[in-house]
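Backbone-to-sequence.
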């Protein structure tokens, strides 16, 4: 249970950090890349929140809500990873071509 709460807190802090970090970038590639990392942190946050609620209440309704939160969290993690991976390759290509400066 303390592990879930620790992951819960770290993931929300990382999500907020990445969202604020997006404001510092002018290049859209870096903005999308950082947004992918933020989505991964958000998915982890949603998933651990659902698991924590089930660990706390342990009812059938809490299980239903946990399954929904896990599905949404995993969807965010997968989509964020795809964005992260795609824009990482785009940044590497742009750096190799010397476009990013």
């Amino acid at each position: 249970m303390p592990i879930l709460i620790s992951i819960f807190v770290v993931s929300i802090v990382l999500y907020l950090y990445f969202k604020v970090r997006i404001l510092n970038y002018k290049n859209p590639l870096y903005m999308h890349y950082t947004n992918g990392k933020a989505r991964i942190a958000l998915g982890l946050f949603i998933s651990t929140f659902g698991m924590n609620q089930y660990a706390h209440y342990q009812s059938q309704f809490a299980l239903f809500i946990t399954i929904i939160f896990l599905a949404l969290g995993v969807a965010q993690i997968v989509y964020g990873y795809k964005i992260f991976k795609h824009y990482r390759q785009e940044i590497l290509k742009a750096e190799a071509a010397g476009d990013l400066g």
